[in-house]
From TrEMBL:
Keywords: Signal. It comes from Seminavis robusta. GO terms for molecular function: hydrolase activity. Pfam families: 5_nucleotid_C, Metallophos. The keyword Signal applies. This is 5-Nucleotidase. Residues 1-18 have a biased composition (Polar residues). Residues 1-33 are annotated as: Disordered.
Length: 619
């Protein structure tokens, strides 16, 4: 297989060029391939997009490619290869509405599922996909859950001129341990699914050409197989090697459009080029596939920084408006700290009630989605970065949360014995100060200091049992050796499989989501976890309870009977009920504006109910 481009680095365009005030499409997108015979295919591809800011560039790039299509005799198709709803500060607030709206404005033709789509649960994912624009096709070739397999096709025919047809597939990794425990999809292996998808597509192709009973060898087959995959690079290499051994697919799969990895990979394996262009649409992959006069399939690939393209006006307007709302959120009060407040200025010297409160909130959020209860949340001082004093009477703001958890802080879950916890606490807290390895624990743990000894006596509110296995959550970097916390690290390296970062949610997203739910529930006088500093799930809170509370407030507001309220009127109503206003209300009101994606200034009863039920407590 040939890989051709104007500027090449190891056979692939490096995407850098001298900028000028005049940006024209052909230098960015490439001329028509010299040896192309007939219509060729131009692909624009991105993967793993967790923010809106680069979608306007991608939308404009697609528009530019389409504008050139007629003159160059090509068909343009755009792809996003999984992870388009989560994780993101936006999704922590609105369950993926803003990102889905961004996708709808980004001129994307084809999507496949990524593992992080399942972060918002089956119900959340089903709801968001119902909002997907009809201009975009979600391809689901190997996930068998009914709400996906019954509504989203396993393949799609992409017509390339009058003579050529491509089969587009979308394949999700079957590495099941990276999915949330309560949202594990039913997934068939990718290699097996590639073959079954191809066979099903061949049968449909025959039917479409009015020859359903013809032998494969006596009828024309589709000309290309274009798999979108969302799996790790070593797994994509295995897939490429497998496809290179398939009699029909080896000559029809010049490109594997990859996702999942956040780094750039442009690698030829078997008969295919695996193309992963990096995270957040910072770079756009531009791939041309064509046929020569003697029928050979050729391809070329270039990688162009997104900001080489202008911005689509509509997509940019939405991104800017949403960004302004998020920026306002950063200064918005989100919660009240425990009585007395606290400081994170000396986290490398001593225990911090603020750090413990944050860890308790992380534990609480994870316990909403876990089948097995988490006993302890911990993090070393190096993971708490705010260096701030907090007055107990002042609110804790979203910006404070982002200052404290300044890193991505993917949070892994493992099991370790009580003695490992106890000795790790003792070793890190008794080390010379300042100690970046100083372990902080959630508020349900008790550590007694006696001289130079730091004795862990209680975990999850109960006396420590040294030989018992405790389920803990912590920064994944800790489990991978950052600060060399012993004997925790030695035990993990010998006895535990550390989860991949991809399987771990960022700590700040977890905290934000928990506190937002608390704020929403407080607005409607529903019991929340903040009441009485209780960190356990609210018992007995059912959907009818939530519906009754919402209906009561809507009735008191004297709604017109259409189940819709004005955002400002709702805020005024809440403010008039002085006992309902507390520090979290500000973020709840800003959330209402975030989820009002149509900009009508109104919220429906159903939308309010969905917000109140985000990650409802389990039993």
């Amino acid at each position: 297989m040939a890989v051709n481009s104007p500027e090449q680095t190891n056979g692939v365009s490096n995407g850098h060029s001298n900028r000028s005030s005049e940006r024209t499409a052909e230098p960015l997108l490439g001329n028509r391939p010299r040896t192309a015979n007939g219509t060729f295919l131009r692909i624009l591809t991105i993967n793993d997009v967790y923010k809106l800011e680069n979608f306007p560039h991608f939308a404009a790039a697609v528009d530019m490619a389409r504008a050139l299509a007629s003159d160059q005799d090509c068909v343009v198709a755009s792809f996003l290869n999984g992870d388009f709803l989560s994780p993101s500060i936006l999704t922590a607030l609105d369950r993926g509405r803003a990102l889905m709206n961004g996708v709808n404005l980004a001129n994307i033709d084809y999507l496949c599922l990524g593992n992080h789509e399942f972060d918002i649960g089956f119900d959340g994912l089903e709801s968001r996909l119902q909002e997907l624009s009809k201009k975009t096709t979600l391809i689901n070739s190997n996930v068998d859950d009914d709400f996906l397999s019954k509504h989203y096709p396993p393949f799609h025919f992409l017509q390339i001129g009058e003579e050529r047809t491509a089969v587009v597939g979308g394949f999700l990794t079957n590495q099941i341990d990276i999915f949330p425990p309560k949202a594990k999809p039913k997934i068939r292996p990718i290699e097996e699914s590639c073959v079954s998808t191809w066979e099903d597509a061949k049968a449909a192709f025959k039917t479409a050409n009015n020859n359903p009973n013809s032998d494969t060898n006596d009828t024309k087959l589709p000309d290309l197989f274009l798999p979108m995959t969302h799996q790790l690079m070593h797994q994509d290499r295995n897939t490429a090697t497998f496809l290179a051994q398939h009699e029909e697919l080896k000559s029809r799969t010049p490109i594997i459009l990859g996702g999942h990895d956040h780094e750039v990979y442009l690698e030829e394996v078997g008969q295919s080029i695996i193309a992963k262009v990096g995270v957040d649409a910072e770079k756009i992959g531009i791939i041309d596939v064509w046929w020569t006069a003697d029928g050979q399939v050729k391809s070329r690939l270039s990688l162009v920084p997104c900001d080489e393209f202008p911005k689509d006006t509509l997509s940019e307007k939405y991104a800017q408006e949403t960004s302004a709302k998020v920026n306002k959120l950063m200064s918005t009060p989100i919660a009240s700290l425990p009585k007395g407040g606290g400081s994170t200025k000396k986290v490398r010297f001593e225990a911090s009630p603020v750090a413990s409160w944050l860890l308790s909130t992380v534990k609480r959020g994870l316990n909403r989605t876990q089948d097995k209860h988490i006993d302890c949340a911990l993090i070393q001082a190096g993971g708490i970065r705010g260096q701030a004093d907090y007055d107990g009477s002042a609110p804790f703001r979203v910006g404070d949360l982002y200052n404290e958890f300044a890193f991505e802080t993917p949070t892994g879950i493992v099991e370790v014995p009580g003695w490992v916890l106890a000795e790790s606490v003792q070793n890190t807290r008794s080390a010379a100060k300042p100690a970046p390895q100083f372990l902080h624990l959630d508020t349900d743990c008790t550590v007694l200091q006696q001289g130079d000894d730091h004795i862990l006596t209680h975990v999850n509110g109960a006396p420590l049992v040294k030989d018992r296995l405790y389920r803990i959550c912590t920064w994944n970097n800790t489990l991978n050796g950052v600060n060399d916390i012993q004997p925790l690290l030695a035990y993990v390296q010998t006895n535990v499989t550390v989860p991949d970062d991809e399987a771990c949610r960022p700590a700040k997203d977890i905290v934000l989501e928990v506190l937002v739910v608390d704020a929403w529930r407080h607005l409607f006088e529903l019991p929340s976890h903040v009441d009485n500093n209780c960190h356990s799930c609210v018992p007995g809170l059912t959907q009818p309870d939530i519906e009754t509370a919402v209906d009561r407030v809507f009735a008191e507001m004297e709604c017109a009977g259409d189940g819709v309220v004005n955002i400002d009127a709702l805020y005024d109503y809440m403010e008039s009920k002085g006992h309902r206003i507390y520090h979290g209300c500000g973020i709840a009101m800003e959330m209402m504006k975030l989820v009002d994606v149509e900009g009508k200034g109104q919220l429906s009863r159903d939308l309010v109910l969905e917000q109140l039920q985000i990650h409802a407590c389990g039993p």
